[in-house]
Amino acid sequence: MSSATAPHRVSAAPSLVVTLENCPEAAAVARDVAGDFLKGLGPPPDRDAADAVVLVVSELVTNAVRHTRTRSCTLSLAAGPGAVTVGVTDSSPVPPCERNPDVRGEGGGFGWPMVRRLAVSTSVETFPQGKTVSAVVARRSSRSA
Length: 145
Hints:
Number of domains: 1
Largest sheet: 5 strands, antiparallel
Strand order of the largest sheet: 1-2-3-5-4
Number of strands: 5
Helix content: 25-40%
Structural class: alpha+beta
CATH superfamily: Histidine kinase-like ATPase, C-terminal domain
Strand content: 25-35%
Low-confidence stretches: 1-11
CATH topology: Heat Shock Protein 90
CATH architecture: 2-Layer Sandwich
Number of helices: 3
């Protein structure tokens, strides 16, 4: 007697890719997209972790708009069991860099260090047409652990 079993299927991790126009409203649109994406996850990230993901999205998109001369950038979100990966791709090959924050509020310098503190890990992949800046954010904040 023989028996057959169904093949083991692994469901794909929830993901989303959105192209955003490089304009002042891009970060607000990206925050809304990220918030909706996170609400659709099961189980959802805890509140602090969700806030961290939305803030990372906002900072990375803001940096792409502010520091590149491209027409658009691409936001990608992917959820794994323990983390959400945020990626922003633009057509500038120049990676983000740390600089002294402008405490007068005119020159920035706060975003990239903040992203690096909120994320479990960050990476920058450069290629001839630009770069992708990625940040992996835990689905459970250290405060809720």
